[in-house]
Amino acid sequence: MSAFLRQPPWTGMPPLLRGASIYLRAPQQADWADWARLRASSREFLTPWEPTWTDDELTRNAYRRRLRRYTRDARDGYGYAFFVFRRNDDDLLGGLTLSNVRRGVTQSCSLGYWMGQQHAGQGHMQDAVKTVLGFVFEELGLHRLEAACLPHNERSKAVLNNAGFTEEGHARQYLKIDGRWQDHTLFAILSTDVARSAAAPQGSGTLA
Question: How many whole angstroms from its chain centre is CA 97?
Answer without folding.
Answer: 4
